């Protein structure tokens, strides 16, 4: 494998690792950055010429990692919707507690 192909392979594998790591940790800022990096990398792929077999395997790894990251984002979005819904449902109780807490604090 020649050096430029190794560099491309390494770049693709690095993106795959970073996608998985960021999504598993819930590091949404890093995930956004890696996603942008991937978009830039893929925009330049036509400049790369012929892809090696290893680069194609690395690209398949990136695709799987991207899909897993996307699924994690969807799951986290749904979990956040659920938490926000629960907070909305309990809003009246929290407001009463807050008011009662302020009144009790003033009486002390």
Short précis:
With 108 residues, the protein is an all-alpha fold. The chain has helices at 3-25, 28-43, 53-89, 91-107.
CA gyration radius, whole angstroms = 23 Å
Low-pLDDT stretches are none
Portion in helices: over 70%
How many beta strands in the DSSP annotation? 0
The main pleated sheet reads as: none
How would you describe the shape? rod-shaped
Global mean pLDDT: 86
Distance between the termini: 77 Å
Order of helices and strands: HHHH
Strand content: under 5%
Figure out the total of helices.
4
**What class would the helix/strand composition place it in?**
mainly alpha
Which short descriptors sum up this protein?
4 helices, 108 residues, mainly alpha
Give a verbal description of the structure:
With 108 residues, the chain is mainly alpha-helical. Helices cover 86% and strands 0% of the residues. The protein has helices at residues 3-25, 28-43, 53-89, 91-107. Helix 1 (3-25) runs antiparallel to helix 2 and helix 1 (3-25) runs parallel beside helix 3. The longest helix has 37 residues, at 53-89. It is rod-shaped and about 70 Å long. 16% of the residues are buried. The model has no long low-confidence stretch (mean pLDDT 86).
What topology does this entry show?
Layout: H1 3-25, H2 28-43, H3 53-89, H4 91-107
Helix pairs in contact: 1-2, 1-3
